[in-house]
Structure formats: C-alpha cells, structure tokens
Amino acid sequence: SLGGSVSPVGLPAWSCSDSLPSVQSPPTFGFLLDIDGVLVRGHRVIPAALEAFRRLVNSRGQLRVPVVFVTNAGNILQHSKAQELSALLGFEVEPDQVILSHSPMKLFSQYHSKRMLVSGQGPVVENARVLGFENVVTVDELRMAFPVLDMVDLQRRPKSTPLPRNDFPAIEGVLLLGEPVRWETSLQLIIDVLLSNGNPGTGLATAPYPHLPVLASNMDLLWMAEAKMPRFGHGTFLLCLETIYRKVTGKELRYEGLMGKPSVLTYQYAEDLIRQQAERRGWVAPIQKLYAIGDNPMSDVYGANLFHKYLQMVKRDGAEERGAGGLWKPRPSATQSCASILVCTGVYSPKGPEATRPAQDAEEAPFHGHRDFSFSPGLMEASHIVNDVNEAIQLVFHKEGWAL
C-alpha cells in the first residue's frame, strides 16, 4: 500500500500549505501507464489524461519522471503506437517508451529462426520481424495453400477439390500476437497445425504431444472501447483455442511463453526500459519505486501486485532474477516496490459487482484471468482506487513530496 488515508474513490486530503519542495531532486520513481481505458477510449483521448501530462511534462516538453506505456494491445507497430500517443497527448513519445503485449517475444531468440505460423491482425508480419522472427507464415497464406481446411464460410469453400500440396515447408511453431478477425478460420487452422505437427496438408493418425511450441501475448479476457460494456479480448480467443484443443485431444494446450500483463516477464521488461530511460536523462538516483496505473483489475492490478510480490521475494531470499523462463537475465535491479493504482475510466466500475462484493465473497467472483495464472484474491486489490489518471498522478506526486 502507498499509505495515507484514501477513500475508495478519491485523493488524500491536502492543501496548498503542505510542505512540498519547489525544485525536485532527480526522480526515484517511475510510471507504468496502461493505455486503453486509462488514456484513451477507442480513438478518443480521455480529458483527464491531458491534465495528467500537463503535470508530467515540463516547460521544455520533457518528462519530469520516467514513463513507460504498457499496453496489452498488439495490432500495431511500436513506432506507430508512439506516433499515435504523441498526437493524442501533445508531447513526443519515443518508440522505446511503448511496450506492446508481444514486445518481450524479442527475448525468445531460440525460436527466431524457426518457421512460425502467426495469428492476429494488423501488421502481423512486420511485427513478427521486428520481434526477431525471420520465417513467418500468416493464417491467410496457410489457408491459400490448403483451401480445403477452411470450411465454415460456405462462400469461401473451394468449388473443386485442389491437388494436394507437397512443397509447403513444415511449420515449427505458433505465434499468437492478438485476436484475429475471422476467429473460425484461425481456430481451425491453428488446431490443424498442432494436430499435424506442422503439416496440415497430410494429417497424422495420432496427434503429437507435447505439441509444437506456442508463444502467446495479451491474455485480457475483456477490454474497454467506445461501447458501454467491455469487448472480447485476445484472452477470449485463447480460451476458445484451449477449450477446443482439450476437447479434441483430452490434453492441455501448453505455452512456451505467455506475455503481456499480468506476466512478471512484461514487468521485468518494463522495469528495464524505465531504468534505461532514467540513465539517458542523466538521472543518477536509482529508480526504487514503480507505480502501475490501469483500469483492468485482472491484468493491471493483478500484474503489478504479482510483480511487487516477486520483487519482495527477490529482496527477501536473495534469489537471482530471471526472465523468460531463465532465457534472459535482467540487470541487477534497484526497484523495491511496484504499487497498483486502479482508475474508473475503463473496465473497472465503482458501481460494478466487483466493487460492492464483500471481501469474504471474493473467491466466488468469476475469474477473468488466464488459466495458467492461479487465482489469488489478494492480488486483485489495488493499492489505491481513484477516479482517473490525473488523480493518480496527483496522488503519487503528493506521496513522493513533489510539487503538484
């Protein structure tokens, strides 16, 4: 907890007479900001976000503290997302300040040379290549090579049976970058690839297990756009894929890597970018505290609290920090805590059932998290709940003794 007296929605009581320094020393804290539901709703900027950045940016147009934007979106290129945020927020956002859900896939170099089927929408091939994958095939390319596999849409069924393909190289793994447009096609062809060991044109008498490696990003079941109610996210697509695979094979779909919030790997990656940003600005004081501001209790709050728990474990046990299943070792960390701040401008509503349910009934609430993240009710509790991101920034500045 950040401490202090905070109402369920609101800020601590303070006045202009509070003792706050007029000139700040180098920051020892940084922000991890979610985007959808915190800064924007769909393509519209939330007014409180503009107020927040008037506080975060100095008169020279530079950030006063390190900030990284951590989103579970992935259907856009990193530099394009930076340009989009720059236009919306009114100051220059650098590409290396933006973490998309799949950004940590850069660390899985042992798969970068393999032939990978990539699922999602937007610039999926470009994104895969930016991440380091050198040999990718899209779902549409696979469908065109084997048109008899995609049979749900009657209008897309081939009029005649094409000759079987023998020249299509075997697929060696699957990349799930985000929700696709035609779920039935992607679900069918991904299952085909897994059941056939990467040779969907031939088929196998017995499905291999363990199956080909699967890397997935963005586990959000729901997300908030312009609609009054949350929309299906990539977590819903993953749920469909896992359920179908288990129903067909009787076995669990396994992931070689799951990234995006609430994965600790994503927060390690964000922490490293925060540290690099502080070093580039010449801020010599180590960044000791992170404040994660989000609208989704299951991804933003759960993830920040899970990372805080991890930091405490490392500090207590002196355990060596590892990332990406031991494949990547982050630099020694000075970060001591990660506090979660929940805003009410997105998925979370202070009038929703999760806000009014007694604490003892928390375990009975529907679990919106991913199957591979066990449900711990305590990790769903935000350090603070405020109305919007502007109030969140004010709260942190006050806590850190910074002039508002």
Provide structural commentary.
The protein is of the alpha/beta class. The protein is 29% helix and 14% strand. The chain contains 10 helices and 15 strands. The strands form 4 sheets. The protein has a 6-stranded parallel sheet. α5 (183-195) links the parallel β8 and β9 (214-217). The longest helix is centred in the last third of the chain and has 21 residues, at 297-317. 43% of the residues are buried. The model is unreliable at 1-22 and 356-360 (pLDDT under 50). InterPro entries: CDP-alcohol_PTase-I, HAD-like_sf, HAD-SF_hydro_IIA, HAD-SF_hydro_IIA_CECR5, HAD_sf. This is Haloacid dehalogenase-like hydrolase domain-containing 5. Keywords: Signal.
Key phrases:
six-stranded parallel beta sheet, alpha/beta, about 30% helix, about 400 residues, 10 helices
Strand content: 5-15%
- Rounded to the nearest angstrom, the distance between the terminal CA atoms is 21 Å
> In terms of structural class, how would the helical and strand content be classed?
alpha/beta
Mean pLDDT across residues? 88
Strand order of the largest sheet: 5-4-1-13-14-15
Order of helices and strands: EEEHEHEEHEHEHEEEHEHEHEHEH
- Dominant shape: elongated
Low-confidence stretches: 1-22, 356-360
Largest sheet: 6 strands, parallel
Number of strands: 15
Radius of gyration: 23 Å
Helix content: 25-40%
Task: Count the DSSP helices.
Answer: 10
Please give the structural blueprint.
Layout: E1 29-33, E2 40-41, E3 44-45, H1 47-56, E4 67-70, H2 78-89, E5 98-99, E6 115-119, H3 124-130, E7 135-138, H4 139-145, E8 173-176, H5 183-195, E9 214-217, E10 222-223, E11 231-232, H6 234-249, E12 257-259, H7 264-280, E13 289-294, H8 297-317, E14 337-343, H9 353-356, E15 384-386, H10 389-399
Parallel strand pairs: 1-4, 1-13, 4-5, 6-7, 6-8, 8-9, 9-12, 13-14, 14-15
Antiparallel strand pairs: 2-3, 10-11
Helix pairs in contact: 1-10, 5-6
